[in-house]
Specification:
homotetramer; about 290 residues; alpha/beta; Rossmann fold; N-(1-d-carboxylethyl)-l-norvaline Dehydrogenase, domain 2; 2 domains; 9 strands; about 55% helix
């Protein structure tokens, strides 16, 4: 396919690279040009403006947050200039409110809109093993499926309403946050009884809770090792905040998310926002009076 | 081995039966004699008092809660009459405070004490697939290992201090409760957006959260089906309460457990205490104003 | 003084009326003209646009929320057209973020900005008994003090940074929300023991907690009477949300506010958003399984 | 009257002293005899056993907690030996469960039981300004009213069921705890914006929240001064725990109490249990990353 890709953070770069490797033609743009270097070496065409990427069959975006997306697409006028008929696949985790606004704007400007947030961190993106949660016009998704196949291990189609993919993603990240918090509290309980949390995690992850989350974050918590950050705590807080907002919009309370949010604020207050999401373990330890 | 088994609820019966099937000689006692019938048919000897079960090489107990255990062992004078040298293996989920009290009393009466709570519900017990978390004197555990092998799929030895096995069990059940609550909240969020929770669970249990907890309880929540109860909500509340007490003893707060506790109280207030633990899904739905 | 007044809800009307009665010249504007009728009868000049109110010595605004203020002042271009040197006194409860944005915009357009949110509901406003929390340039506050004296019983000057007055107001409303929630929970506990909550409130408000909040809201909760709404629950939720956002900006968690927010969302989910803030009492009762 | 008084901590001593001063004949007992010295000098008769105090018209008790009361009255056999017809007035804050147990035991032993917990700290007790919340047999309360008049400013009769007085007291202390926590959070928000919390408290306690609680605890929080402890945090935690247990018994959740409990556990984890209840302010400050 002939595609554009804008937003080349660690996730975006890995995804664009996998698209390139699979033989797609890729036009790339990023606010800071440095991030385009490796892609250019691999054969990507670097364009000077985001608008220049909105041509061809489809353009994929992986911008940092609502503000970045709004700055580029709406305030930056990119949507107005976009080639009619191009498909925009937004793979970032954004608010439901912005998603709905984008759906209306895209329709107005004749651009198809597919929401396709992903489950997985940069290492998973690099391995082309992402899980892609896609929602939007079925025909549009069919057309971009070859690119999804190049960057993910599976595409989960969750309906025709783009909003739904974002709700899935926010709920998934809320559940992730809750699992990390719960593991942190359990580990703190172990420490209170002078039990090595690793021993507890060994039992738990081989019985009730197999899988990458409890194992991976559990080990970081038990090790008191919060760097390198694969998923920064401050971005985790952003996602929990978006999940709370999405839920509030439909009059749903998420009491566990409220607890996690409060503890993530404590993370930021202690200067640990750039540490890994697992640093919730440090909050639990601090609150229990243990050196951390 | 020549063993006793007291406390024949659905868990205890299944466990005693598997010990019998493996060729062990089993003396059984239960407060209500009905529960001994099937075991007698399979070759168990039914005794009239709990004290008569406290002879032979070891006696296993699976009584309902702290109060039942206290009534039988302490107030009932069983420990005083127990054969010196017998090993008592307590497989029930009890408070840390009672565990510590029992350790002292057993020592005083010359009875070895092993704490060996199990992970798994009655169906798992019937299949002899329990995970046994054992702590206590190593030699005593070695001696009863053949019975553990008959009733469980794996024994996790977590130290010489019986207390530790109970801390593991309470922490595991706290994490279970938190996972059910989190899934309930996420399912409620889905319903708020008119998304079928089954679709969301399909993604989540095939990506971030594989394993029996999110799958099994998740399905019950998505189905709004809370019967039959494999793990009753009121027993779940009991365990969360014990986890909170265990944590408070060592000055550890478990904020997520506090949230779950409050919601489980709502379960009881609405007469759903005998429903399955998954009925937390109903609380989330009720709070969001949906018919449940 | 020669003043304008925009935003004539029940609070704004009462305040503008008291300014009129005290002899000030008042130009009034409201989006829906109906609200200006009574004021016109009392001698106010009704103007057609908000911009026309931004002349004279000062203009007071009491618009509903951030969105309304943004629509009129910023998007509506009123600030650009405002007479240089006029003092804008914003008496509404708004977000800290918008306050900061307004400070910068006012400076740019040569309009003095005073933040002066008020404590008190419409009945208090009508009685000219409001407490006014004012922050901004001291000289500007001095000049508008005569109007404050006409509409309030006391002006609390809390510094030169307008932001500070809004932080005070949001913290006050958070404390109000917490007191209502706490009273609701205590009343629910009383009902659980078949004790009349009125008896409990009688003791508590004559000992530990005198004053209007526990007495007034307490009586509504004990009476299960949530109408007429003097302070609507949905506006209470708005303020709690603003308090949480203000706190998050400076990395402060407000765990009690999180709890109240979750319960207020339940209020809205059950269609009670237009009931009085005291309707938190209904949430506590519902969760405890009592007909409400 | 001819009375006994057992349990002479700082509260008990002050109360017994005021009874003496009012002309009553007082027999006193305390586990540690030191505490009886000042009372003896003022004319009290010191007895060697608690049982010797259970004679005359009435005996008042102010023991530390459930355990102390159980040790003396039940395990110590005092109730069995008590003079028939004596009235026992228990002024301590105890659990509802123990209260109910005591009601039954007193009836069995022919001793009238009045529950009469008090609102007020040692300074208030010394000034004979306590508020007494009394429940039990009306005639029995009538007979001890002269002593109540000597030690309190007002007696609130809340029914014939002793339990009810304890529910009132626990609910009152829960509301106290919630107010301290809320004030702590608000003060932390102020600090986050570099606002002196004293200024905020000045406004709040002169408008929405007059009265001793917000003023007294508020000042300690704003001063970061948590000693001397008029009401120790660890005793506050005890009361919150009793309130939660009382509520759970009747299937009522107290979500705000859960939050306060978690923060009080943090107080103990940091070695501040003997500081004043206001030390919740330190928890809020610590969580927000400020030196405390």
């Amino acid at each position: 396919m002939d595609i554009g890709f804008i937003g080349l953070g660690s996730m975006g770069q890995a995804m664009a690279l996998n698209a390139l490797k699979a033989g797609h033609t890729v036009r790339v743009w990023n606010r800071s040009r440095d991030a385009t270097k490796q892609l250019a070496e691999q054969g990507a065409t670097v364009v000077d403006t985001a608008a220049e990427a909105f041509v061809g069959e489809a353009v994929f975006s992986m911008l940092a947050d609502d503000a970045a997306l709004r700055a580029v697409l709406i305030d930056g006028g990119v949507l107005q200039q976009a080639q009619k008929g191009v498909i925009h696949v937004n793979m970032a985790t954004i608010s439901i409110a912005l998603c709905d606004e984008l759906v209306a704007l895209h329709q107005q400007h004749g651009v198809a809109y597919v929401a396709a947030p992903v489950l997985g961190r940069p290492d998973v993106a690099a391995a082309a093993k992402l899980n892609i949660v896609a929602a939007g016009d079925d025909e549009a998704i069919n057309r971009v499926q070859p690119v999804f196949d190049a960057i993910g291990q599976k595409t989960w189609r969750v309906g025709s309403k783009p909003q739904h993919a974002n709700v899935f993603k926010l709920a998934a990240n809320f559940m992730l946050a809750a699992a990390i918090e719960t593991t942190s509290e359990a580990a703190s309980l172990m420490s209170g009884y002078d039990i090595d949390p690793h021993a507890f995690l060994d039992v738990i992850t081989n019985t009730l809770f197999p899988g990458p989350v409890y194992q991976g974050y559990g080990r970081m918590i038990a090790d008191h090792r919060y760097e390198p950050a694969l998923f920064k705590a401050k971005l985790g807080l952003k996602d929990v905040r978006l999940a709370l907002a999405a839920a509030e919009t439909v009059n749903v309370a998420l009491p566990v998310a409220s607890v996690v949010r409060d503890n993530l604020i404590e993370v930021l207050a202690h200067g640990d926002g750039d540490k890994d999401f697992a640093v919730l373990g440090r909050v639990a330890a601090r609150r229990a009076g243990r050196a951390v």
